[in-house]
Amino acid sequence: MDYISQFAVSLDAILGEEKDTTLYLDSHTHNDVYQEGTMAVINRYPGEVRPDDKYVSVGLHPWHVNDDWKEQLAKIRSEASLPCVCAIGECGLDKCCESDYRRQIEAFREQVLLAEECGKPMIIHCVKSFQEIMAIHKEMKPQQKWLIHGFRGKPELVKQIMAKGMLVSFGHHYNVNTLAYVASNHRSLYLETDDCGLSIRQIYEQLRHHLSSGSLD
Ligand SMILES: [Zn+2]
Fold first, then answer.
1. Given this structure, which CATH class describes domain 3-213?
2. CA of 22 to the centre of ligand 1 (A)
3. Ligand 1: distance of its center to the CA of 125 in Å?
4. Residue 141 — left, alpha, or beta (φ > 0 → left; ψ -120 to 50 → alpha)?
5. Domain residues of the chain, as ranges?
6. What is the pTM of this model?
7. pLDDT in tens, 59-101
């Protein structure tokens, strides 16, 4: 089973009462302290994958696309095929950071090629760049799944993205209507803690609260 399928949380698991046997799934986190009862994909920066890692992603974040980006990419390339690396990322595009945008695009496209080569999905950071991400997806026609993490967009945007076969994950901040739309149409969700400081259990509780108080039809 691929990484993406393993970390999809069924709506029942979110809405159901908490049980001792519940395994909490976190599709993207920067917290590498192991927590009991959770399975998480820990984000690693290039060259930082550890021998005892279980589930990690490795990628070049758009904030870190600097003069040395090609060297960083070579590090990712050497780690990408390790069995513990279940996704390439987080990587992506961000119009609100200092890194040169053209270079961000170049680095992102290289990581798309790498993900395709090693047959692994991508975890994508996207800030004010949805049109660009969708255009690259259309042009490169990846076979691997793309998970847009920390999605905060409106329902209209998520409809467009999911119609193209991409996925989204929800963390501490999101649009409640978008959450309700994805939950009712797809019956499963990706959840994440990213770097918010909450536990994945708290994220489940937050979503449960919003989904059970809102109208799900
Ligand atoms: Zn992150």
1. alpha beta
2. 24
3. 7
4. left
5. 3-213
6. 0.94
7. 999 999 999 999 999 999 999 999 999 999 999 999 999 999 9
